Amino acid sequence: MAVEDPSAPHGLKLTIEDYPYANDGLLLWDAIKQWIADYVSFFYPESSLVESDEELQSWWTEIRTVDHSDKKYEPWWPHLQTPDDLVGILTTIIWVTSRQLRPIRFRRILSQQAHHCPNTDAYRRSERRRGD
Prior knowledge:
- The protein is mainly alpha-helical.
- Helices cover 61% and strands 5% of the residues.
- The protein has helices spanning 20-43, 47-52, 54-67, 83-97, 102-113, 121-130; strands at residues 2-4, 12-14.
- A two-stranded antiparallel ribbon has the order 1-2.
- A hairpin with a 7-residue loop joins β1 (2-4) and β2.
- The longest helix is centred in the N-terminal third of the chain and has 24 residues, at 20-43.
- It starts with a strand and ends with a helix.
């Protein structure tokens, strides 16, 4: 849906230009990222503090190796060495767990599971057509 483009306002260029949901999402992403950056810069004013924070490093190791043990050897995991790394990781986690992503997930879930729900609109419409 988007490709990296440093000249674009958010650092990303949408592949579908007229897509309001994605445009709004980029605004939300930027707001989350800025808030996280301000927060992280308060607690980690120097790069070395992120790498030397044992609890933070343990948390990140646990996410990669325990919570996602099936993917722990994947090369795409970001490294956690600088405040910028932490900002990227936290922004992604908050984005993925936010309501912004929910409509995308909900449509997928609904399309996979709606046939299991006897009280859906589709079920009631089929009853009316049969004359039951």
